[in-house]
Write a structure and sequence with these properties.
about 80 residues; alpha+beta; 4 helices
């Protein structure tokens, strides 16, 4: 990682408020997004969770555990 990225992460760790710790303009997915696409996005971007948004409203949060559970159940 670049020094700038490391500095951002340190600032999040030292945060005192949610506003300081949150990710502004997060990557989101739609409820109809294919689970394989979400899994690939998580791997490519090293995300642990992704907000699920429908019509501008948060309807859920998808975590790596949810993805793994879904993929394993398909097998």
């Amino acid at each position: 990682s670049s020094m700038k990225q490391i500095e951002k992460e340190v600032q999040k760790i030292a945060a005192l408020t949610v506003a300081q710790a949150m990710t502004p303009r997060p990557v989101t997915v739609h409820p109809d997004t294919n689970i394989d696409e979400v899994a690939a996005l998580m791997v490519d971007k090293n995300f642990h969770s992704i907000p699920v948004v429908k019509e501008g409203r948060l309807v859920g949060i998808l975590g790596k555990e949810d993805i793994l559970r879904t993929i394993v159940s398909k097998l």
